[in-house]
Amino acid sequence: MLIGKEILKYSLSRMVHKKFRTFLTILSIFIGIAVIFVFVSFGLGLYDYINEFAGESTADKLSIMPKGNAAPGMDDTVAITDDDIEAVEQTNGFYQATGLYAKPAEVTQDKIKKYTFLIGYDPDKPIVFELMNIGIAEGRELKKGDKGKAVLGYSYLVEDKVFPKAYSLNQKIEIQGREFQIVGFYESVGSPPDDAQIYTTLEDMEELYKDEIKGYAWAVAKVDRENLNTILENVEKSLRKSRDLEKGKEDFFVQSWQDMMETYTLVLDSIIGFVILIALISVLVSAINTANTMITSVLERIREIGVMKAVGARNSDIFNLFLFESSLLGLIAGIMGVGVGWLVSFLAGRILESLGWGFLQPYYSWWLFVSLIAFATLTGAISGAIPAWRASKIRPVDALRYE
User: Fold this and answer.
1) E strand segments, 60-110
2) N- to C-terminal Cα distance for the chain?
3) Residue ranges of the domains in the chain?
4) Do the beta carbons of residue 96 and residue 222 sit within 8 Å?
5) Are 73 and 105 in contact (CB under 8 A)?
6) Among residues 126, 129, 131, which one has the least CA distance to residue 144?
7) Percent of the chain's residues with pLDDT above 70
8) Contact (Cβ atoms closer than 8 angstroms) between residue 386 and residue 291
9) What is the pLDDT of residues 200-258, one digit of tens each?
10) Is the pTM above the cut of 0.85?
11) Is a pLDDT exceeding 80 seen at residue 345?
12) Could you give the CA distance from residue 314 to residue 365 in angstroms, rounded to a whole number?
């Protein structure tokens, strides 16, 4: 009878003896496990970010945007107007609504020109920043009556992020050929485009783009969260009436932020699921490779199997021996896979953070480590089950005569 220590010692000696084959078998499994770890950890990080973003601050918000393929502010053919805002304000369950301008802007520092989005909003209705869940890093937000003042995204506080020189409070910044005084900087959103945006009042935007602005790029409404779906339908009715449109022919869409977050989550599910499917195919191929390795190992050791049975080893001992070897290959591959996966995701997270993509960070959970190691071990075990069963059924007499 083979006992645990004997099986372990014997299996390890065989793996060391055939180290190149062992390495290739482990490599094929661990690559798939590492890929799954990286994408799942980043996927969990994005889910965590979405859940944090879609918290209490978004539960009572509606987004109203014109339909179209262009980014907000790039096409004013269809825009949200003051009449639309007024129609929303007259809807039962409404608390507050505001429109926002968004236009591409040329920003200049010492003859260096950069292009970003300039956002105009009503300082008395800063509900959009409740959605973004960001505060002021330095200085203050805009106030009613501010003229020629701006709040900048976080990247302007850092050298070589947007411009070679960082900006500070009360400095002047040239936007669209006009100087604005900097009164504050927002905290980092974790996205370079967002962290490079500049914010000013609606009045300043109307002066800068007086011949271009035909309406708001989008609008946000704060409503009674207890009757959100009913209010959403009523807002759509009010807007259809305001714009003289029939149902089904709307040139706008109204959506709750919770629904938007669910849509993003579904898209994220699809992307991550597709990548994991590809990685699982890789693991399946590696499982076939493991099975092939174990079959080869059985064929090479038929005489050894005969000797072991001749000295008293049972069929179950032979089966356990080969099953243990294939499981051990999977276990080692799993440990290596999650180790390499963790290292890659950690380094990638640090690189992305240094590039300004702070929201793209991996999230680690103990079950991710345990489940992937267990999955790799199970893959190895299943791959070796049939070769192990065949090895256990070899007759001692036939095995000793085998050449």
Assistant:
1) 61-66, 94-109
2) 25
3) 4-53+262-401, 68-250
4) yes
5) no
6) 126
7) 80
8) yes
9) 999 999 889 887 777 888 888 777 777 777 777 877 887 888 777 777 777 777 777 77
10) no
11) yes
12) 42
